[in-house]
């Protein structure tokens, strides 16, 4: 890398090519996250409040068509389809990440993706007028595809455009907007606002508005410079995009780092999912992503939200007020994720992951105890409320936001789309599984089901502690070298290929080992 000297100091750029938060960078992050991630959160919780009114609509529509009321088994099936089609769509969306981001770019994919959301919003908003409930179920699949793409492409896009010293903070922004989406859906879903018999089609249809805003504004912002340089080979455009994002003209160091990454990857070409899974040089990165994504979804976050209402009722909260308590939990979620944005760069990723999963693990264990004893010990119901809040805090600072940041950081340009596709698929598949299995688990095990979540959190903590490195303030190439050491492969000095230790003849090794294994 070139020496940074006189030129750079004049442009507030400190040693280590640290970037500052420019207005353009902040706007790109906000528009991408508001137009895409926000709706992922919104659609997770939007059908919780109006559920009884929507079920009435299903019933009424069926009755009007056939003249007989819907039997309860069929109604349960239709409703569980309405709920579970969303994560299933998310899985399909994740499978589309690799072809779309490689062919249309990161920004291009986000723009195309908005068409899914706007279509689904129009269909859901008009479903009552059209007197069809099938359209709602279809729209949930379309919305799921949208969320599956958004949940992967936004972190990838923002991670690639951020300077390394802000990458963690900007990487948590999508998760912040997901929690905001959940909160806004909870507020709009209050009975007094739109969570009623007349308002629910509007509640479902509102999801199209952020997409429309993004569709109109995002085209004016630059594409990911890494995509332009490494995948499109257009250095001039990449340089212009980078200059706009950084707010100064001297971006030689970052361009040089990208060229270095480009050279190191020429040999491997683009990874498909299959080649990613079989490539030894990325083995531990891939396992780490799968473990963190499984930990994130199987740690019981959906179950805690599901149980929350009941826990508050047993603590003596009036039935009419439970919805306000749910909103306050949503608000805690937003505030703690906002905190993560500010502390991820100072504390680092590992600490937040370990602390987050640690809090979830402890609160699941105590919650099991509290739920079992709350009939005999009067104050136990208050302890279970505390557990729920601690759990939400733990998930919001570490388990929810950091895994997506880590996918961006642990993979280089050629393998990143495939890695997001794997990580995203695991994320949505586990989400779908928990939704499907939890009701049966809860019926069979009751409060003891939280012990399973406790064990999953513990296993994730152990793995992260021993395997996952700290990636704070490192370039993608530096992180790659740390992981190369773990994978027992060597990165060539001239950055042309990754070779197995064993396949490199002794004479060729010389001093390269030390450079590739430096921490």
From TrEMBL:
Q: Which GO terms describe its cellular component?
A: sarcolemma
Q: Which CDD domains match?
A: MFS_GLUT_Class2
* PROSITE patterns xrefs: MFS, SUGAR_TRANSPORT_1, SUGAR_TRANSPORT_2
Keywords of the record, alphabetical order, are: Cell membrane, Membrane, Sugar transport, Transmembrane, Transmembrane helix, Transport
Subcellular location(s): the record lists:
Cell membrane, Sarcolemma; Cell membrane
Where is region (Disordered) located? 497-519
Q: Which reaction does it catalyse?
A: D-fructose(out) = D-fructose(in)
According to the entry, every stretch annotated as the Major facilitator superfamily (MFS) profile domain falls at 29-472
Q: Where are the transmembrane segments?
A: 21-42, 77-98, 110-130, 136-158, 170-194, 200-221, 286-308, 324-344, 351-373, 379-406, 418-441, 447-468
Give the Pfam families listed for this entry.
Sugar_tr
Answer yes or no on keyword Transport. yes
How does the UniProt record describe the way this protein sits in the membrane?
A: Multi-pass membrane protein
Give the Gene Ontology MF terms in alphabetical order: D-glucose transmembrane transporter activity; fructose transmembrane transporter activity
UniProt-listed Gene3D superfamilies: MFS general substrate transporter like domains (1.20.1250.20)
Q: Name one GO biological process term.
A: dehydroascorbic acid transport
State the similarity comment. Answer: Belongs to the major facilitator superfamily. Sugar transporter (TC 2.A.1.1) family. Glucose transporter subfamily.
- Which NCBIfam families does this UniProt record tie to the protein? SP
Q: Output this protein's name.
A: Solute carrier family 2, facilitated glucose transporter member 5
- Source organism per entry reads Himantopus himantopus
